[in-house]
Amino acid sequence: MYKCFSLSIKNNIAHLQMNRPEKRNSMILDFWTELPEIIADIDAGSKARVIVLSSTGPHFTAGLDKSLFAFVSEADREADEDTRNIQSGAAFYHNMTQFQTAFTSLEACRIPVLAAIQGGCIGGGIDLITACDMRYGTENSFYTIFETNLAMTADVGTFPRLINLIPEGVVREMAYTGRNVTATEAKTLGLLNRVYPDQGSMLLGVMEIATEIASKAPLAVSGCKKMITYSRDHSTKDALDYVAIWNASHFKLTEVLEAMEANKADRPGHFASLPKRCV
Amino acid sequence: MYKCFSLSIKNNIAHLQMNRPEKRNSMILDFWTELPEIIADIDAGSKARVIVLSSTGPHFTAGLDKSLFAFVSEADREADEDTRNIQSGAAFYHNMTQFQTAFTSLEACRIPVLAAIQGGCIGGGIDLITACDMRYGTENSFYTIFETNLAMTADVGTFPRLINLIPEGVVREMAYTGRNVTATEAKTLGLLNRVYPDQGSMLLGVMEIATEIASKAPLAVSGCKKMITYSRDHSTKDALDYVAIWNASHFKLTEVLEAMEANKADRPGHFASLPKRCV
Amino acid sequence: MYKCFSLSIKNNIAHLQMNRPEKRNSMILDFWTELPEIIADIDAGSKARVIVLSSTGPHFTAGLDKSLFAFVSEADREADEDTRNIQSGAAFYHNMTQFQTAFTSLEACRIPVLAAIQGGCIGGGIDLITACDMRYGTENSFYTIFETNLAMTADVGTFPRLINLIPEGVVREMAYTGRNVTATEAKTLGLLNRVYPDQGSMLLGVMEIATEIASKAPLAVSGCKKMITYSRDHSTKDALDYVAIWNASHFKLTEVLEAMEANKADRPGHFASLPKRCV
Amino acid sequence: MYKCFSLSIKNNIAHLQMNRPEKRNSMILDFWTELPEIIADIDAGSKARVIVLSSTGPHFTAGLDKSLFAFVSEADREADEDTRNIQSGAAFYHNMTQFQTAFTSLEACRIPVLAAIQGGCIGGGIDLITACDMRYGTENSFYTIFETNLAMTADVGTFPRLINLIPEGVVREMAYTGRNVTATEAKTLGLLNRVYPDQGSMLLGVMEIATEIASKAPLAVSGCKKMITYSRDHSTKDALDYVAIWNASHFKLTEVLEAMEANKADRPGHFASLPKRCV
Amino acid sequence: MYKCFSLSIKNNIAHLQMNRPEKRNSMILDFWTELPEIIADIDAGSKARVIVLSSTGPHFTAGLDKSLFAFVSEADREADEDTRNIQSGAAFYHNMTQFQTAFTSLEACRIPVLAAIQGGCIGGGIDLITACDMRYGTENSFYTIFETNLAMTADVGTFPRLINLIPEGVVREMAYTGRNVTATEAKTLGLLNRVYPDQGSMLLGVMEIATEIASKAPLAVSGCKKMITYSRDHSTKDALDYVAIWNASHFKLTEVLEAMEANKADRPGHFASLPKRCV
Amino acid sequence: MYKCFSLSIKNNIAHLQMNRPEKRNSMILDFWTELPEIIADIDAGSKARVIVLSSTGPHFTAGLDKSLFAFVSEADREADEDTRNIQSGAAFYHNMTQFQTAFTSLEACRIPVLAAIQGGCIGGGIDLITACDMRYGTENSFYTIFETNLAMTADVGTFPRLINLIPEGVVREMAYTGRNVTATEAKTLGLLNRVYPDQGSMLLGVMEIATEIASKAPLAVSGCKKMITYSRDHSTKDALDYVAIWNASHFKLTEVLEAMEANKADRPGHFASLPKRCV
Questions:
Q1: Chain E interface residues facing chain B, Cβ-Cβ under 8 Å?
Q2: Looking at the structure, do residues A31 and A154 belong to the same domain, yes or no?
Q3: Contacts for B203 with CB less than 8 Å, ≥ 6 apart
Q4: Residue D47 has pLDDT above 90, yes or no
Q5: CATH code of the domain in which A128 resides
Q6: For the complex shown, is ipTM > 0.90?
């Protein structure tokens, strides 16, 4: 039982939901430990082939809970005040990298993560959804780099990832003004893949896409995820070289033949799952 | 008094205007020394919180003035002809890096720079506006990599920055054909954030955005600018690490609390300005 | 005479056509040796100023021919089975880098390559067109990362290049689901520069663009191609420095003056062609 | 109680010893989980200011235990043979990155790790000691990239780190021939900081250095470690920028003043310890 | 007249001396503005072909003057205390990057800088000499990363450059222990090119080397400096490409022929000087 | 029959000798085409497991032949003078990258290349030997970056590679002064692995090392070469990841078991050769 999430796994699809709607799913301290644990558990145990991340209530998430603002710079509870003061920069840096690691677990896990967003996706919410593979939203969803409105610079991943997702000029405008971006604008900008009329139809639609993904060979899908992330962060030359050496071990003719036969017979293919992690 | 610009600072907004409309604001030798001086002066003295760069006359700018074409390869006036010939490559390289530095000053300064563009934005104009944070244009504005039409390869910054702003295939078409891009197309491509019917409404609109930006905490806005530029040029991993360590020194709880109170009371926040540069 | 291509050169435009429509222009072993040979020959001999790559039949290309699937991991025909087994990873890696080199020749050659795409552009077809400078398509053209449907991870260049051309979220959706993207969607995403009603009008349109490009100074166009590719794979700072030193040797005042005079007189400019390669 | 190590912490110095001398301290499966756990525990709890890593018996370590050779490619115990075959590349890659992570924990922890090496340091031993901060050896110690003698390419970290420690030509000779390098040669090459006559004098000497390090301000020492590792992997420009922003939060005038006073009074300084990790 | 330096230029050699021996040439605020001004002036005006940097008194330099320790975090004199507190991180970062820029001017200038070091080279002295091209020392010279002894992490350039000059294990030992390195050790490590018995013989020896350098073609020497610095910070592939395009503009056959004739006739060559900077 | 080389292959060792001693093995135009052809032929056909590169006569090589100096900037023989003038920068760049590619073939081939150097290794000779895996020299051998003495900046690979092989301060001194480095100095600097009394004993010694290398599993040795070169040009993190995925396809348990048995029985192992290249 988690404090911030509920989780169900069915048909190789893990559905992870934020479940503190009464607090607008703000990210409290537990959030940051639960999220990476859940993701690592699914991934290491090869318990699903795709993850859908959605939320409850009128808003996807309000971002970092205010209880964390004071926490981050002075986390060493056992130290006296003078010491905590000297440690403050080091503590902030450490805590922030831990928070970042929580979101990076979405990017690092071997299977795709699809975000289904309703209502407000605010502050840390942007960091969260940009670490997912794809984003789908309701018509009434909106997107805000709210940190500037609170005299902060977004720091759990917004800029390093958003800069790759939407035009740079809009990233800057969103960041400097703290303004809302609508679902329609987000779709045009490339942030969302699709916009749905409401949360119900969105979940149906996203589950359909997830089902399609779950029907493919997991090693191939997993390879795609790794290659896309790698390509984003490396030069063309390095990425080309990497995909060649990756496939030298991951390409399996038996899987290809099975896929061909399954396609021909219009039946689901039977593919090897990802290896469970043993170390 | 500047030869190529007029400058006014009001309400924390610096309005910098190119003022040689009769020469279509072509970039003469003075342009390249005046621009970085003005920007450095505003930035070092913390004299404004945002810069709006606009122009006068029917066209934003015609780009490099033709008087510079001969100059760039043989700038060492005191040398004899043989020596100048031997020095030509070295002189060209030096002069070009100086020109680039002038535009890079827009990117390097700590506060946002908003470009408001009317009519033609030609050749060096593209280099200029891509070094700004955001771009806004009139309906009749148009954008041209004109260098190819003059048997040159654009060299003051067009490609290194434009490649990050609009689809690569369009960068190539613009460069190889030297064709005009309309305001509407530029908006769709992501080059412009917004299109306005005319220069008057554009300046009003851009000043409104500038006012919004000037109301935010300068340290936070400045952090956003740094992070976005850093993220564009570094891997996700490096950018995540950098933003964590940046905020370890720049995040200030007192500013956050002031912002919260101000938001609640619906009044402007009172924030520390950027430190004046002393060294 | 080539097995997979026909080639004609006229008015400084090389028109290269895939000519195995009955096999949906699938990429057989010859394809991978013929393509780089043709490109290198045009480039080294300075035989054209632009290349148009089109296809024949209802579909642009079906991608890798199935005959290659078994080939790639066990190419050393002279070795016994045990040895081939031990060599399999090394052989796969080598073959794949050779295949990649074939497509990279399009990117590495000094003149622009324009792809004109009709019908299906499937699997290896995506790798092929992303290595071209610009892409134009017919209304009925469609684009598919088909490898996932065959339990493979695309490996001849799709991800390293596509990630730079269209929004990351869509790259991921295309890769994980193997779904088709229509011409209209491809245009909106930035993959295509223009959509034409049919192949006839497309070839007319693309030839017009090619003609425009062929009328510019080849050294300038070639410089643009190099700079854009370089900028895509390097930081802003490195790319700025590179373009300055590039132009220190490639900028030629005589070419500029000729271009100005030609523009004034509304006549074609007479420009130096690219040097023939001698080593 | 650990299977492969014994650990004692005294005077802010953690002494970690490999304690399977009868098996020449070969790295069995437990080794790879115990090592990162121990390091993380010391680091997170701020339990020491420096770590000394030594060994027992005639040899420092014989490297990877042979029991692992078969394990690495087929770790998913629950899968059937066909599946394991398809998964083999993926399993190998995963397991190897886990092994690498174990050694990288030495580099990633916030305090210096000093290796004190006697006798043979073989195969995986090279990977291990190159992930430490400094290396000290006995006169009879020797160093071997043994993997080549076993028809393998070293893969837990030897090359990525050794290439930065000794001349490239010697790295290559060691790798291609699998030959031993003596302590004297290792000192000349820069691999060892100092050579001691025997293990007893070495441990005395290394503990003296460790004591010296433990007397310095932990935040300063930790900053040095981070900066050196960062500088090794980044350009001069990026590393300069990073150290400036790092110190913006970590430089503490009170610590400096305390250090000055302590130096003057020739007494130990009283410095803040590293913050305990709370997330 | 400078406060921290005396300068003489003779036979194309600029001799720059630190001249506050009574204060052990500690780096006061003026030091940081004077140094880059002097270097830029020599470089822009092409006033010398090589710079020799030496010092006076028993010690080369004691590093940063203590007067700067408080200054760096609160430089904005006009601000009130609360504001200065909020600005402290930003002020520190800015000031430190300015200090770094002062040393980087040695690396960035177009001509070689030779450091001739006597006695103690402490703290900031390491940052200073690592930014020079070559280092020569007296037998009694010694080298210390003293910052750790003052509870600081060296931040004006020590690690980013030293890591490229001496074995990593020794950088770490010097940094963590703050110990002295002797001239002999420094020579063995590669930090010094040569050791001289005393300052007199050192200055004679270094001037001889400087004279040799000044006799070569300045464009060629300048190209070497640029290429070596570039190669240090880029991949082999990028550096190869850069040197090819650099020489495309800087290689001058007339200079080569003059050099050959001069060599043959055993007379000094007459070479073009570096172009004076005009922008 | 080659104009610049003689080649013999015996016991899996290819011995490649420069054979124009009467011209001090200067690098004429044929040299640049013959070298990469020979290397590619050995490599693609898997004709040897190691290459020894030696020379004849009193000197290893005098570097680039003077006949090339004029050639490089005006290689397009068919063009008229005006055109050649406009093309000069482009032609120089192209030719130089071709020359570089010739030397890079030594680095890119899958098997180790050992250089055995007698007498003078001058100018282009430095570029040549730094592209080899290891360097061995006679007592009377010497090493000179001679280009500076000819008013040139070395451009076929000296700096990009030498900077990784010997201390930066010495690279700079060699480059700026054009002075000779003796064999003893070269050994101390790390440029040479070993010094032999004369060419006869050197060839015996180097052949012994080559024989040792040829006895190892070719796939393992080849993997080492790739990993070392990759590690040199990538960050620690990227290199670790790469070696893990490389071995996922190249590690073969059967080879390991054969190596173990062979070691035990003190007999040569029977290993798979590198796959012949088929594409």
A1: 29, 32-33, 75-79, 82-84, 86-95, 98-99, 219, 222, 248-250, 252, 254-255, 272-279
A2: yes
A3: B52, B54, B116
A4: yes
A5: 3.90.226.10
A6: yes
